Every structure is written in structure tokens, then in C-alpha cells.
Amino acid sequence: MKIEYSLLKTDKNTKARYGKIKTNYGEVETPMFMPVGTRASIKGLTTDQVKQCNSGIILANTYHLWLRPGEDVINHAGGLHKFMNYNGPILTDSGGFQVFSLAKNKEKDITEEGVHFKSHIDGKKLLLTPEKSIAIQNKLDSDIAMSFDECPPASASYQYLKNSIERTIRWAKRGKAVHSNPNQALFGIVQGGAYEDLRKFSAVETVKLDFDGYSIGGVANDGESKEDMYKAIDYSIPYLPIDKVRYLMGVGDPIDIIEGVIRGVDIFDCVLPTRIARHGQAFTSHGKINLNNAKFIEDFTPIATDCDCYTCKHYTKSYLRHLITVGESLGGSLLSIHNIRFLIKLTEDLRQAIKEDKVLEFRNQFINKYQNKNTD
Q: Is 11 labeled as catalytic in the residue annotation?
């Protein structure tokens, strides 16, 4: 079966939605944060450790898995779930974000056919097309596949974005036409920068293609302001179906997740929790803390007393600082567990706030506490 989304409750004061997604691996609730396993691995963690964080859907990267080990290897292993031993739903991105960053001459390398670029591994010339992206994802056998779209930079002009959107819609049609995995949902992607008319056009035309869900892209590239991110969401959401999943791509800042939920977004993903963990940083309800700081040398308390993660139950800031400062990989793993659990718990709390019609109250309390003491 493909995924099925059910909208169960909308907060009476905002557009925040509580819902459930039925998958071949059980039901998961939204709003939801999805940990990112770029190369079929949440960096530094086993799938059991990720599950202990109460993860639902996780994300893997089509581009990286295409290059290594290759979609055929994963297909022969029985699909991505068996290959990486994750007994839960998986979403794969299209590979577009990576190949567009590797395309040096945007006017020359991005064509109607697809994107020409060089492998980051050996410099080999490659071409990724909408058809190829979908074919790879079909073999990976993820629960949700993403359409192949262009990821324009924040600095792109209005005319460039308009042309890009029109081509992305043509690519979406081509990808949908060859999608052949009956157990895999396919999502369309809305682009358009911070331009209201372009977001509307992109959303309306993409929805006409009748995808299984929809994502809002172009908000986590380098250079976007928070204001432009929120505009992109506000300009897109009104034109997306209420009975299908809404996915904000690449967003993992706690406040941005809250603001996205308030605007009607259901699912989020980002590498942020594991990335900052490897540099010794941890989320707390009072803001991020940097465990490299000397003040934690003899701090024998957990990262957060209000956290229920494995790390906070068993280790102190002093020990974690020791691991980070001496370069032990365990430090990054333990902080990753905490950071992933923090964002998942945040979305769990948002679900409860939606059920109680208290989302705005929750946002104000969270932001006042988080921003006033943010030490990052």
C-alpha cells in the first residue's frame, strides 16, 4: 500500500494540524521531525538507537546511495528497509539538492533533459534526469519518493525562478509518468522563493498533477532569511490539499519547526541535530549549549533534567565534554541521540498542544525560554 494521511484535529487558533500517516510499517503521528540518514545511516547511531528516540519516518539520500553502493545493490538486498535494518517508514529525497550544488554552470549544466555534473567522489561526468531519479528511488523501495526539482539559490532572480518552476513542473510530470513502485508514495515539490505569485503558481500547477503528498522546497538553501522562509510557507500552504501530507524540506531549528507547524506543516527533516552534535553542541529548552566550554569540566548533571533520552538518563555534561574534547566518536553519538530526541519530543509536545488548542501559548512559552538563554 501507499501511505494514507488522516487529518484528525486542527488547532482552533492557528493552521496547526494533528494527523496520522498510515504506512506499511504502521501508523505515525504528525507533526513529526524526521532524522536524516544520508547514506542509509543516521550518522553514528544504530537503527535501534534511532527507534529509541521514538522516530517515525526517517530520510535517506538518493544521490549518495546511487553513487555508493548503488541502487541495484540495495534492491538485491531487499530494499532500503532491509539493507539498513530500519523497521519503520523511510522517505528518500530526489538527489536534486546535491546535484544542483555540483552543477558549476547553471545555464549550461541544467537543461531540459536533466542536470549534468561531476561526481564528488571521482569527478566522473554524470547526468541525473527526472526519470533516473524516480527509477533509483523505485529500486530503493522507500515509502515516500520525492519528485526531481531544481533547487534555486536564494539570490535567484524572479525571472530565473519563474523559468525554473515551469521546468520543475515539466520534470514532475515526467517523473510521475515513469513512477512504477505500487507501494511507494510520490510527493510533488513547490518552489518559488519568497514571491507570492510564483508560490501560488507552483503550488496550483503541482497539485493538478495529483501527487500523494506535497513539500515546500527552497527554504533551507544558503541565504534565506527567516522572514522569507515563513513567507514561502504562507504563500504555499493555502493551495495544498488539506487531506494530504505537507512537508517542509531541510528545516530543523526548533523555532522554525514551531512556526512551520503553526502555518500548517506536518513533517520536517534536517541534518542539524547530528551535525551540531559532532561539534559538541546540544539543544536544551533554554537554548543550545556548547559542551566544549570549560564551565562544564566538573558539571556532573545531565544535558537537560527534563529530557527522557538515553544520554540524559546515563551521562553527565562533564563526561560528554571529555569525549568531545578528546575526539572520541562516542561523544558525537550520545549528543546526536539527545538532539534527535529533543526535536522529536518537540513535535510530540506540539501534537498535544494542537489537541488542546494551545499552540500559540506553547509557542510563546517555548520561545521566551529558549531565546532568552540561548548560549550558541
A: no
